[in-house]
Amino acid sequence: MNALPFLRNGELINLAEIPSLPYRDFGDHLARLLSAGGRLAACFVDSPPDAGNVLPVYAVIAEDAENRLGVLRAFISRAQESLTPRIPQLHLFEREMAEQFGVVFRGHPWFKPVRFHAPWPGETDAWGRNPLDHPQVGAMHYFRMEGDDVHEVGVGPVHAGIIEPGHFRFQCHGETVLHLEISLGYQHRGIERLVAGGPWPRTPYQIETAAGDSTIGHMTAYSMVLEALAGADVPENALMLRAMALELERLANHVGDLGALAGDIGFLPTAAYCGRLRGDFLNMTALVCGSRFGRGLVRPGGVRFDCNAVRAEKLRQALTAAADHTRGALDLFFETPSVLGRLEGVGMVCREDAAALGLTGVAGKACGIDCDTRRHHGTGVFTDETIAAVTETTGDVFARAKVRRREIEQSIGLLHRFLNFRMRGPLNVPIGPSAPDSMAVALVEGWRGPIVHIAVTGGDGRFRRYKIVDPSFLNWSSLALALRNEQISDFPLCNKSFNLSYCGFDL
Amino acid sequence: MTETISTFFIHLLLLFGLSPLLAGVIARTKALVAGRQGPPVTQLYRDIWKLFRKEMVISETTTWVFRAGPLVGFAVPILAALLVPFGAMHAPLSFTGDAILFVYLLALARFFTILAALDTGSSFEGMGAAREATFSALAEPAIFVAFIVLAHTSGSLTLSSMLRPGPGGELFHGPSSMSLLLVSFSLFIILLAENCRIPFDDPNTHLELTMIHEVMVLDHSGPDLGLILYGAALKLLLSSALVLNLVLPSSGNDLVDTLVFIAGLLLLAVCIGLVESAMARLRLIRIPQLLVGTTMLSFFALLLIVR
Fold this sequence. Notes:
The structure holds two protein chains of two kinds. Chain A is of the alpha+beta class. Chain A is 39% helix and 18% strand.
């Protein structure tokens, strides 16, 4: 076996340095790296213009303990033996490659479309559909059970609440869910293809809305990719402001999520207070950049807004007040017996399943998986910052709620430290041309988990392939697992405890 | 004769006029506890008025049963209310055994609501119907045992005497005060269960998979929905009257008694609001345990008086 090339988060690697393996060896290496504690951050097909019928596949493996990223490459044909039975983390990546490039993975146990779009231009369709037709979203064979008292319940894509569209199909025995199948793709916008060939002037706006509630996370990852490709040295001001905005985003969403959990179980005080407090945290982001979701704050090369001493003082006051109220609302929530009775032991995912599926973020931490990009792959401000691990062991709704509560505390502490920083000097640097024939990888710990952006540049230095992996992509599978043998009436609660992104999955 | 007619009139006036207010008071209480302002207490009057002026959308797969559900659900609480005294005010109608009619009138309304839900053929409404049938089967013994205690205390099977065994206020003094206390408590829990309040059901939720009662009426719209909302409000007042009868004293003055009853209703609504604010919903599989527990509570009340 050749020595594998490694890089760190936010670095680039020349494509020529990545050895090419046969797909079988690729699988061996991958299995070895994953069993040694690695996580599959991304796996995707690149499409160089002269590819023909042999496509290069890249896999990026995050080795948390070693603080490094491994890269593997293989060349595959359009009909390939599936590695999913051996490496479950690949299950969605293989389906995605099949949908985009028409690669048929033989032996894949669940070979279905992911987002229901036509294959990319010039590619064949893996399921023999007409590549010129637009497939109907959700048109596939669903898992189905037969038998006495077994019934099927379909929910969505149009929901009663104000949430994104997605279809959930339950196979139930009375009130017990035997199986849940999740079908998404209703919000597919084709962001990866829109960005390819770029960066274009409109690209930042598209990236900011890849998952609108993780604007800062996605935009920071995109900026890191471009900065790595251009070799830009981002000023410390900008790194600090990005870190602050990232923690504010985490606070707003975690507080909002806990409030929504309270709402789902009809516990009004916390639902009402957290709903308001989420707004308070969003307004703090608006105080810095004028947008509650941080649109327009982060740009490649730096940030576009300043946080001077006056603003920092205002932020500090707002943060102190909001933090006090948040603690009060959450103490009440976590100390009320009827609330705990609803959260504990519901929607369990065991650690083995979580590890096999490569769960990350809140979903993974709740199962005891210690994965935090700020902790293991820290860049910018987080390089020297010590981030304590936030993990729980039970893997139920309660564990996910508790991870959020502890991360809220952590983020408040971090922000108070960040606010002591005095901004001096420039906010951004100009970004030069990107390095040709290279790959840059950026991981950012968004509030749901690690957001992965990878760019592969062609000979002209433009993006030949741009790959985005939102933490929701793999974590949706855990919701299906959590519902096994669970009461169907607890589905909304389980769903809210993950609160995964539909558009982040659909891209 | 005139007195009977005026009893009827005042009874119905209180029933129709006040019932939507209770829902408003509950909502307002919850809002205030949660630190919000909340909708005005008259919101349900406005909602019902709005719905009565709207068009109806009726699924083509349904039959007359679908329309009958809301009508029966509205008519039944009116009939049942005529059997129940409002505090010191006598019930307009009473005869031996009307307690049994009372329980089965409510069961009739539930039966038609369930049929109307099944009539739509929707999987959600089927689930709601199954839940309602299961839980009401468990709530029925609870209310019956409570009634047995009352019948034993009063030596009568007429609701008027069962609920007002003496001049009023027996709960606080008298030989059977302990068991009456237990009965009023279990009647309060039955009120929460019958009226789909937290911890049994969440009347405010939009999550169709968690609903019991609300999911059964998802397909109703316009005036039919208005009837359902009004019927639910009537039922809430009716159940509140059951609880209040055991608690409220009587002064001998009709006007004072009426005012005391109204004040009691509003206070009870505030109590419901506080209960809803203080706790989360139960898991659906825990509901039978609470209902059986309520039945046991009434059983203890029975043991206390027959010892």
